[in-house]
């Protein structure tokens, strides 16, 4: 039995892939209604993270923020209270390397194995099984998890011991936030000079500077339709804040990132925290 905790916009698709591949699944989510489509497809519902731990030998968590991960992990009804010695916990949440290492240590005290395995990719890749996993942890544990990761993703990058998977995810999302912001500024600047937006984007895509993620954001920026989010402002701001905190702890400056992070923070202040993070284009463009 495989456990899955966190049935949000990413977790629901990842868990759905496992169900479609024939795995027996027991799931938990704070809001049970979000899990109904998976229950209708055959997933078993658990009333707490502890119950998932009691019944599954491998558990995947995909949670929104560090606080949610701690809430699931600890406490009387928490995951660690239910997991059996020798079980494997795969955490795909985006948290800090420091927190991942602490979770790994807490799991080890209970005889539980732990992998930090956050992902690169949004809802489309999650639905198609095309995520990229950045993994920190023991190679033998990764070998056991590999068939599941292979169903949910297209690549697995083992970065080293616990904490290195989440470290790589922060590096990835730091660049992600900067890339979309830089593209948005360039497009908005072109428009301010009287250039046609469609033509600006076409020319940028023809050149060497356009990253693959920008093709996924083209329609949102063209149509200026940001309310249907693939990846929220709240999420990129959280990830960049985690990177900033980790950089501070390691004595490393992030001058570009901190500026871009502040702009996403201003989008939040405008009430757009639940919008797609490409809404930074609307924030930057000349009104």
From TrEMBL:
It comes from the Bacteria. Keywords: NAD, Oxidoreductase. One of its GO terms (molecular function) is NADP binding. Residues 163-283 form the 3-hydroxyisobutyrate dehydrogenase-like NAD-binding domain. The active site is at 169. Pfam families: NAD_binding_11, NAD_binding_2. Residues 2-158 form the 6-phosphogluconate dehydrogenase NADP-binding domain. InterPro entries: 6-PGluconate_DH-like_C_sf, 6PGD_dom2, 6PGDH_NADP-bd, HIBADH-like_NADP-bd, HIBADH-related, NAD(P)-bd_dom_sf. Belongs to the HIBADH-related family. This is 3-hydroxyisobutyrate dehydrogenase. It comes from Sporolactobacillus nakayamae.
